[in-house]
Specification:
Blueprint lengths: L1 E7 L6 H17 L4 E3 L4 E4 L2 H11 L5 E6 L1
Antiparallel strand pairs: 1-3, 1-4, 2-3
Length: 71
């Protein structure tokens, strides 16, 4: 499993708000043909490294967070 962490800036965001924004990000990725799983309020899991790379590109458009790879 390949993960991406969404680093929210500026802090503090509430956990509920983080979960909502992360969920919206997973829906956006799904609409672009990328299957994901939300692991926590700020982590998204991908099936393949290719999907993670494409996801990072799409998620980089956000002004609410910065997406980073998790090893």
């Amino acid at each position: 499993m390949y993960e991406v962490k969404l680093v929210y800036t500026p802090e503090p965001y509430s956990t509920t708000l983080k979960e909502s924004i992360t969920y919206c990000a997973t829906v956006e990725l799904f609409l672009r043909g990328i299957d994901t799983c939300q692991m926590s309020a700020s982590r998204i899991a991908f099936d393949t490294d290719r999907d993670r790379l494409l996801g990072l590109i799409y998620l980089s458009e956000s002004t609410s967070f910065r997406a980073v790879c998790v090893d």
